[in-house]
């Protein structure tokens, strides 16, 4: 008998926290869904970057750079590419 009374007493004490627990679970589910959406977007961006890297745009870029009197874009782009990949993979992971 005493055990049943203790359980009911404990249930009454925990009742106010049930709503908070449910709210936390819903927040966690929303956060997980958002994270999956962001990861999907980042994967798509990486796929597009890989496709763009495979295409040879150097002739057009050099022509534009020559017209503007600037250094070729590929020189800067190749230097920034590894940094961008590290940041994107760090966010995904």
Explain this structure.
It contains 3 helices and no strands. The radius of gyration is 27 Å and the shape is rod-shaped. By secondary structure, it is mostly helical. The longest helix has 53 residues, at 2-54. 90% of the residues lie in helices and 0% in strands. Helix 1 packs antiparallel against helix 3 (73-92). It has one domain (3-92).
Topology:
Blueprint: H1 2-54, H2 58-68, H3 73-92
Summary?
90% of the residues lie in helices and 0% in strands. By secondary structure, the chain is an all-alpha fold.
Oligomeric grouping of the chains: single chain
Average pLDDT rating = 74
Helix content: over 70%
Can you write the helix and strand succession as a string?
HHH
Structural class: mainly alpha
> What Rg do the Cα atoms give?
27 Å
Strand content: under 5%
> What does the overall shape look like?
rod-shaped
Q: What number of domains?
A: 1
Main sheet: strands, sense, barrel: none
* Helix count from the secondary structure assignment: 3
The stretches of 5 or more residues where confidence is low (pLDDT under 50) are none
Beta strands, count: 0
Give the end-to-end Cα distance, rounded to a whole number of Å.
52 Å
Please tag this protein with its features:
mainly alpha; rod-shaped; 93 residues
């Amino acid at each position: 008998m005493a055990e049943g009374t203790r359980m009911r007493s404990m249930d009454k004490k925990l009742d106010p926290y049930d709503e908070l627990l449910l709210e936390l679970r819903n927040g966690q589910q929303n956060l997980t869904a958002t994270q999956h959406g962001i990861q999907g977007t980042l994967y798509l961006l990486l796929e597009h970057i890989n496709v763009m890297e495979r295409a040879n745009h150097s002739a057009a870029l050099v022509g534009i750079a020559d017209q503007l009197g600037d250094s070729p874009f590929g020189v800067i782009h190749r230097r920034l590419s590894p940094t961008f990949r590290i940041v994107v993979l760090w966010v995904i992971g």
